[in-house]
Specification:
Blueprint lengths: L12 E2 L12 H13 L4 E3 L8 H10 L7 E6 L15 H15 L4 E6 L8 H14 L2 E7 L3 H14 L4 E5 L4 H6 L3 H8 L2 E3 L1
């Protein structure tokens, strides 16, 4: 996975629709999907703290029981978790701390393999983001970090700063699976190749 020794399945199971009956999959169908993926050798599962109001993480945590060490579980933070609370969203340290603690509880684990910055809030300085993420890596609650929905210049600046200061660096970049978007965001793919970031659709 990027400039790291972490190994992941070539196909990642996106669990964003888990726990969303009518739009996605209810708990029973989600379990079937997860088991088919796992039985076929898949070990890389991606979710986020706000998917299905946290239900996606709860289901992944339940499905991972007894096989957690075999799985690479990735989740995200940034999106709003408490409407009306200005500190319950964003990239800043307080938002990260609260969101990660809640994710670990829902996933029934004491660490996540990859924590993605879900989107850049346009406010928090990259220095604060990278230092706060590095603190979580050093604390053992996060093993690796990644980023999605952010401009190439910000990712390049953040990773370069982290490397120079000996902090954890992004190992992956998550982008929308769309040929149109990939063409429009032509800076992201060359940047990820140059900086050793693994792209996850």
């Amino acid at each position: 996975m990027g400039a790291s020794g972490l190994r992941v399945s070539e196909i990642c199971l996106g669990a964003g629709s888990f726990g969303e009956p009518g739009w996605g999959a209810d708990a029973e169908e989600s379990r079937r999907i997860f088991d088919v993926y796992f039985d076929a050798g898949g070990r890389f599962v991606d979710v986020a703290n706000t998917y299905a109001g946290g239900q996606s993480e709860r289901l992944v945590g339940a499905f991972a029981r007894g096989r957690r060490d075999e799985l690479v579980i990735a989740t995200k933070y940034t999106a709003i978790t408490r409407p009306g609370d200005v500190n319950a969203w964003g990239n800043h340290r307080k938002s990260l701390r609260q969101a990660l603690s809640a994710s670990l509880e829902r996933l029934q684990t004491d660490y996540v393999d990859i924590l993605w910055v879900h989107a850049w809030d346009g406010i928090t300085p990259p220095e604060e983001i990278m230092r706060a993420l590095d603190d979580e890596v050093r604390a053992g609650r996060v093993l690796y970090i990644g980023v999605s929905n952010a401009p190439a210049w910000l990712i390049a600046r953040a990773n370069t700063m982290a490397e120079l200061r000996g902090w954890a660096s992004f190992i992956g970049l998550q982008v929308e699976y769309s040929l149109v978007t990939r063409t429009c965001e032509h800076e992201l793919l060359p940047m990820s190749r140059h900086m050793g970031l693994r792209m996850v659709a």
